[in-house]
Design a protein that fits this description.
Elements lengths: L5 E11 L2 E9 L5 E7 L3 E7 L2 E2 L4 E7 L4 E2 L7 E12 L7 E12 L3 E8 L2 E9 L4 E11 L5 E4 L1 E2 L11 E4 L8 E2 L3 E4 L5 E7 L8 E4 L6 E5 L4 E7 L5 E7 L4 E3 L2 E3 L2 E7 L10 H4 L14 E5 L18 H13 L4 E4 L4 E2 L2 E5 L5 H10 L3 E7 H6 L1 H11 L3 E5 L6 H16 L3 E4 L8 H4 L3 E4 L7 H4 L6 H4 L21 E2 L13 E2 L2 H10 L4 E4 L3 H5 L2 H9 L6 E8 L3 E8 L2 E8 L4 E6 L8 E8 L10 E8 L4 E6 L4 E8 L1
Parallel strand pairs: 26-27, 26-36, 27-30, 30-31, 31-32, 32-33, 34-35
Antiparallel strand pairs: 1-2, 2-3, 3-4, 4-5, 4-6, 6-7, 6-12, 8-9, 9-10, 10-11, 11-24, 11-25, 12-20, 12-23, 13-15, 13-17, 14-16, 16-19, 17-18, 18-25, 19-20, 21-22, 28-29, 37-38, 38-39, 39-44, 40-43, 41-42, 41-44
């Protein structure tokens, strides 16, 4: 029987300088995308959308430390094609069920192989190896050759010491300095309107990939990797980091038989397609143990507001009275967790408590009110004391750890992420990685990795004059969230327009409007979702608090409604028969017509928060309205400069 998803199985054998060239063409299930794989002197892939090539042939290879190059003059031993059609039940995700449909080409070259997949939303490939002994990978060639000098949304660096917390630069490939590269995801903007998002998935025991300018090929991006660390020293902010001082001449020392990370190209001819992709989750390995105990939810955060509660009969700060107050606030408003950030223990000894803090007592106090406790930790301190403190945390009844300041993703550090996830899973403890790399699907194997920073979030408005802006926020759902969830930490109740913004460490504010903050609670993917401001500020803003408290953090269904990269994003999500709709806009603002055709039959009640008529002057100005809607309703919504909107919709 013919395989419908192969236009050409293996039909071209062309003599190229004495070497037979073979060609395979793989189509996506909807026939929108095509990837052509050619095997000759090298292995290349070419991507087309609707029959139009959007890349030039781009080569892939892997070089080992013994000089072997997997992909140079390869000899194909076997090929296999198959259709993937399965349903994936998710844990702690933006939809409860994923329909995983793709067409796959497996190429076997003996000691190594290549798997290509074509999805309706993008293309992916990965290396596999089958060596008996361990191997050292000296380099991996991941290239993307384009047909034009495309404009990128990228975050340019000249170091691998990074927490993925930069703004996006808009830069053409030719304009990338030779000594700089970008972390992923990044976005390629083609002149025909097509956009290519690039990231990776199933990253284990291997370094993360970055992309720089290919100096030898025009209009080309080429992967660069952090080398394996051989000498390290304590450094960085407050000595919370470990800097790499010397490296080996290889990337990774790995088992000879294994799979390598998937290289992913999301391909969209409408910007809103980038708002709702499952590729990273689909391409990552599943859990191998029971994670039914994982409890998602929201968390009251102390650090951003500087533990600054007032109108209370005690001195606020890092002390038992303040944390009991946080727990009382969380319990009264259905907030599942409270986070104890920096200061509850000695920075470099997690067994020595500070400031009269008794964690075990706080855990008991919270448990009686159905509120769990997260503890903040410096990553290398946790790693050093792991055998000692993990049983202690379990004994205390701690529900989660916020692990901070890795700022690296070489092979050694990537193994740390997995090690912590595994150790926490053994004790049914959640983990939230901050000062971190991007997510790469490890949360599918370890759903107790409940969130991941790797983003320039709201915290920057506390201490940096450029902070984080609505312009930046309006890019994140299309670019950073291609990799998965992110801990942006929204929830500011002090909201300022551009001219009024300033940094205040103890009473910080956001840039943009109140409804921008409310909209973020729906737009963001975050199984653990922060309430960044002080309980005192929330209690003064009951309507905003009630909406935030009502918003779920995982969903049965997600629908991308509208958006333009860097301008605005609108997303609808459904949980327990209730729909939530959120929108955010950049500093220009945006007026949209919202179509409610995602609703079912019948009449619904919509609680609607929109920017007030004076929100362009006073960021905290908003309007709350209640009206009935049906699936045929169309509603004009004006988002102010740096604005947004939010809705809760349920059947009447």
């Amino acid at each position: 029987m013919k395989n419908l998803f192969f236009t050409i199985l293996c039909v071209l054998f062309v003599a190229v300088e004495g070497f037979a060239q073979q060609s395979f063409t793989l189509n996506s299930p909807d026939n929108r995308l095509t990837v052509k794989v050619e095997i000759g002197e090298k292995i290349t892939y070419t991507v087309a959308i609707k029959g139009q090539e959007i890349t030039a042939p781009s080569s892939v290879s892997m070089t080992l430390d013994n000089g072997t190059v997997l992909g140079t003059k390869p000899k194909l031993k076997n090929s296999k094609n198959q259709a993937i059609n399965q349903s994936i039940k998710t844990i702690a995700y933006k939809r409860s069920l994923i329909e995983d449909k793709a067409n796959e080409l497996q190429l076997d070259f003996g000691d190594f192989g290549l798997n290509f997949r074509a999805y309706s939303e993008g293309i992916a490939y990965q290396f596999t190896t089958k060596f008996k002994n361990k191997i050292k990978v000296k380099n991996e060639e991941f290239s993307l050759n384009l047909k034009e000098d495309a404009l990128l949304n990228a975050s340019l660096l000249n170091t691998f010491w990074s927490s993925y917390e930069q703004f996006y630069d808009q830069v053409k490939i030719s304009e990338i300095p030779n000594d700089k590269f970008s972390y992923l995801p990044l976005l390629v903007n083609l002149s025909n309107g097509v956009k290519i998002g690039i990231t990776e998935a199933d990253l284990y025991d291997y370094p993360a990939v970055y992309l720089g300018k290919n100096k030898n090929v025009s209009h080309s991006l080429l992967g660069v990797f952090p080398a394996y660390p051989t000498k390290e020293e304590i450094g960085g902010h407050n000595n919370f980091g470990i800097k790499v001082v010397e490296t080996a001449d290889y990337l990774a020392d790995v088992q000879g038989t294994r799979t390598f990370p998937w290289r992913i190209l999301f391909i969209a001819d409408e910007d809103k397609q980038l708002l709702d992709s499952d590729l990273v989750y689909k391409l990552s390995r599943p859990a191998s143990q029971d994670f039914s105990w994982v409890k998602t939810g929201k968390v009251a955060w102390d650090w951003w507001n500087d533990n600054n509660v007032y109108h209370v009969p005690f001195q606020s700060g890092i002390n038992m009275a303040t944390y009991r107050y946080f727990i009382d606030f969380a319990a009264a408003n259905g907030i599942e967790y409270v986070n104890l950030d920096e200061g509850w223990s000695e920075q470099f000894d997690l067994t020595k408590l500070k400031n009269d803090i008794n964690v075990e007592e706080l855990v008991k106090y919270g448990k009686a009110k159905n509120v769990g406790i997260f503890l903040w930790c410096v990553w290398h301190v946790l790693d050093k004391q792991l055998a000692e403190v993990m049983p202690l945390f379990e004994k205390w009844g701690v529900k989660g750890l916020k692990v901070d300041f890795m700022d690296r993703d070489d092979q050694k550090t990537m193994n740390f992420y997995q090690r912590i996830a595994e150790e926490c899973a053994k004790r049914k403890i959640l983990v939230n990685f901050h000062g971190a790399t991007k997510p790469t699907g490890m949360n599918r194997a370890y759903p107790n990795i409940i969130n991941h920073e790797g983003v320039r979030g709201l915290e920057y408005n506390k201490f940096a004059q450029d902070g984080t802006t609505p312009d930046h926020a309006a890019q994140l759902p299309f670019i950073r969230m291609l990799a998965g969830y992110m801990d942006y930490t929204p929830g500011a109740m002090h909201n300022a327009q551009k001219k009024d913004f300033k940094t205040l460490f103890s009473r910080p504010m956001s840039q943009g409007t109140r409804c921008h903050q409310l909209g973020l609670y729906v737009v963001l993917e975050a199984p653990l979702l922060m309430l960044s401001d002080s309980p005192t500020e929330y209690l003064k803003e009951r309507e905003s608090l009630d909406f935030i408290a009502s918003v779920p953090t995982t969903y049965e269904q997600t629908v991308a409604l509208d958006g333009k990269v860097g301008e605005y994003a609108v997303i609808a999500r459904k949980q327990n028969e209730v729909w939530y709709v959120g929108g955010i806009a950049n500093w220009e603002g945006k007026e949209i017509t919202l179509n409610f055709n995602f609703l079912g039959e019948g009449v619904y009640k919509a609680i609607i928060f929109t920017d007030g008529v004076n929100a362009d002057r006073v960021g905290e100005d908003y309007q709350k309205n209640i009206r009935s809607v049906t699936k045929t309703t169309q509603m004009k919504i004006k988002m102010a400069k740096g604005g947004g909107f939010a809705m809760r919709i349920e059947k009447m």
